[in-house]
Known about the structure:
By secondary structure, this protein is an alpha+beta fold. It is built from ten helices and 15 strands. It has helices at 21-35, 43-52, 58-61, 104-121, 139-147, 186-196, 208-215, 244-250, 271-285, 303-309, and strands at 2-3, 10-14, 62-67, 70-81, 87-94, 128-134, 151-161, 177-178, 226-230, 233-238, 241-242, 254-256, 261-262, 290-296, 313-324. The strands form two sheets. An eleven-stranded mixed β-sheet has the order 1-2-3-4-5-6-15-7-14-12-11. A four-stranded antiparallel β-sheet has the order 8-9-10-13.
Amino acid sequence: xxxxxxxxxxxxxxxxxxxxxxxxxxxxxxxxxxxxxxxxxxxxxxxxxxxxxxxxxxxxxxxxxxxxxxxxxxxxxxxxxxxxxxxxxxxxxxxxxxxxxxxxxxxxxxxxxxxxxxxxxxxxxxxxxxxxxxxxxxxxxxxxxxxxxxxxxxxxxxxxxxxxxxxxxxxxxxxxxxxxxxxxxxxxxxxxxxxxxxxxxxxxxxxxxxxxxxxxxxxxxxxxxxxxxxxxxxxxxxxxxxxxxxxxxxxxxxxxxxxxxxxxxxxxxxxxxxxxxxxxxxxxxxxxxxxxxxxxxxxxxxxxxxxxxxxxxxxxxxxxxxxxxxxxxx
Length: 330
């Protein structure tokens, strides 16, 4: 445990395991509330997520901030390597509104960046960057990063569709067919999605364990998916899901039209619109009142226009911040 001077009686300590999850959920939710971010975490969410990590050891990569024994903030870091060899050292941090302005965020950020340097030094050879995804509304966090020389790199838009019963009837392209998703299809669907994203910005190849983690995740809801086939090949997909716990906590009826991909051979034929329209109608049939998705603001496949054609409109702009991470020569 490390004692710190500002504010007095504040200590940073390592993650202790599942006993920390209730306090961490409370801190994260209070931070979301302070920033107007419509999200909610439960101890069960954290337990499930932490058990599935592949590029993060929370006992080494997470830090808790306590003041007089009360958890007043925490941070966590992890890393992943893009297909082009760039290693991104990513991070999150939470401080409730009532504890802000006391230097807690700066101390957490300093710890996170020091940890990034330690990990990067063990991975010589490729370029490294500090990486942070900041949601619209997280203004205090954005100011903290900017003060430490982070710069905006890319913008991602959250889009919302609130007229699920008024979706246009886009036809399926000729020669393609929808099929119910069966267990023997799972691997082909997984592989087709990652192949379709090979030419996208920031593409990160999946690790072997990621497939099994996906099969066990809450967003794995194959009965809701829209998958188009050309013979034995997956031509395109939309992996729709509903987060029931989130809807209950936030008193809303939202589904997600996400994991949208079309193989190169079938692009430009209206397949994405047809699959999205079917996804939205399914959500309406299940009693949802809206659907959300996130899109790269500089997507080169015209996805933004496709989503607008399907009734989505932009409601938030989130930002990726980065700064170089220089690994000293040994």
